[in-house]
Write a structure and sequence with these properties.
- This protein is of the alpha/beta class.
- The chain folds into three domains: about 1-55 and about 335-390, no CATH class; about 70-95 and about 220-320, HAD superfamily/HAD-like (Rossmann fold); about 95-215, Calcium-transporting ATPase, cytoplasmic domain N (3-Layer(aba) Sandwich).
- The chain has helices at about 1-25, 30-45, 45-65, 75-80, 90-95, 110-120, 130-140, 170-175, 185-195, 220-230, 245-255, 270-275, 290-295, 310-315, 325-360, 365-385, and strands at about 70, 85-90, 100-105, 150-155, 155-160, 165-170, 200-205, 205-215, 235-240, 260, 280-285, 300-305, 315-320.
- The strands form two sheets. The protein has a seven-stranded mixed sheet, with helices on both faces. The protein has a six-stranded antiparallel sheet with strand order 3-8-7-6-5-4.
- α13 links the parallel β11 (about 280-285) and β12 (about 300-305).
- The protein is rod-shaped and about 110 Å long.
């Protein structure tokens, strides 16, 4: 864009200088007037301007890749420096995404019966929490028959038929939806959630039967990365389908102040849009299939490299190390790259602003102008290459 404005102006200056020298300064001396015009065109050659941005983008992208951050294009590297709000998906992003079965509470049947029915129902689900429940139950040596029917209810839980029994596993809302009374265990459920565990109620044939709880481990790098983001002036928000108590317990452990809890998978993109409507530049970070719509609508979508292919396809940036530490690295490199671009443009424009008047008054021979032009281009490239040695 700058070159498109700059080139016509320079050509105009060269023509005016030629006419002034040919008609007034050295009347009739065509060769000298032409030499002045050529010197102006050479000294003002926009090579440095043309190199200012792409060389910085190339060097910045290369250094980011060394840090485990892959930008899909230069425009994403340029946009990332504008981010002022980051939304982090909880499971697999803030936490390791490998929850474990921690608690089993029974009411109307023995523990093995409950685990057999719950495990068989959850075995057909692809949710990480379901996988944790199944793994924990199988580790206890319980045999799990196949479910005859299965239905996943997003934001609520699951429904299945196992050995002729209707089994429901999920949230309070799921129990209320099927008019199953579980008020007497809600206090126990709240205690588990306050401890950062995800508690799920189980019902068999329309009667409350028990409760299972799972807990996910926080990634070691999460608290440090979130602290770095705050130091950079970025608002950090955690989004999850978990209930408010569990979400707040996890957020407190890593230093996140703002939580969006009980958000359905399809609601994540809506939350991103709400923040954008407030004038915020939003980055969404996730790793799962249900994060893909939010990754796509965010100003910058960042996918955890250890996540699903769908998430990485929808994202603008891939964090290959699989932890949150790469997020501040990505923003830092974007900011440094944009600063480097501005330095290059300032140098290139300053060089031309100084060189053109000198050439116009006849103090610069064309060969000197050519050498100076080459030096300007080399200076821009060398400045851009400093990004490859940038420490974070």
């Amino acid at each position: 864009m700058i070159s498109g404005i700059f080139v016509p102006i320079v050509v105009g200056i060269a023509i005016v200088a030629f006419l002034i020298w040919f008609f007034w300064v050295t009347p009739g001396d065509f060769a000298h007037a032409l030499e002045i015009a050529i010197a102006i065109l050479v000294i003002a050659c926009p090579c440095a301007l043309g190199l200012a941005t792409p060389t910085s983008i190339m060097a910045g992208s290369g250094r980011a890749a060394e840090l485990g951050v892959l930008f899909k294009g230069g425009e994403h590297l340029e946009t990332t420096h504008k981010i002022d709000t980051i939304i982090l998906d909880k499971t697999g992003t803030v936490t390791k995404g490998k929850p474990e079965l921690t608690d089993v509470l029974v009411e109307t049947m023995n523990q093995e019966q409950l685990l057999r029915l719950v495990g068989s129902a959850e075995k057909s689900s692809e949710h990480p929490l379901a996988e944790a429940i199944v793994a924990g139950i199988e580790a206890k040596g319980v045999q799990l028959p196949a479910a005859q029917e299965f239905e996943a209810i997003p934001g609520y839980g699951i429904r299945a038929v196992v050995e002729g029994h209707e089994v429901l596993v999920g949230t309070r809302k799921l129990m209320m939806k099927h008019q199953i009374s579980a008020e007497h265990v809600l206090e126990t459920m709240s205690k588990l959630e306050t401890a950062g565990k995800t508690a799920m109620l189980a019902a068999v044939d329309g009667q409350y039967a028990g409760m299972v709880a799972v807990a996910d481990t926080i990634k070691e790098t999460s608290p440090t990365a979130i602290a770095r983001l705050k130091q950079m002036g970025i608002e950090v928000i955690m989004i999850t389908g978990d209930n408010q108590r569990t979400a707040e317990a996890i957020a407190k452990q890593v230093g996140i102040d703002h939580v969006l809890a009980e958000v359905l998978p399809e609601g994540k993109a809506d939350e991103v849009k709400k923040l954008q409507q407030q004038g915020k530049k939003v980055a969404m970070v996730g790793d799962g299939i249900n994060d893909a719509p939010a990754l796509a609508v965010a100003d910058i979508g960042m996918a955890i490299g250890t996540g699903t292919d769908v998430a990485m396809e929808a994202a603008d940036v891939t964090l290959m190390k699989g932890d949150l530490g790469s997020i501040p690295d990505a923003i830092y490199m974007s900011r440094k790259t944009m600063r480097n671009i501005r330095q290059n443009l300032f140098w290139a424009l300053g060089y031309n602003s100084l060189g053109i008047p000198i050439a116009a008054i006849g103090l610069l021979a064309p060969w000197v102008a050519g050498a100076a032009m080459a030096l300007s281009s080399v200076s821009v490239v060398l400045n851009a290459l400093r990004l490859q040695r940038m420490k974070v």
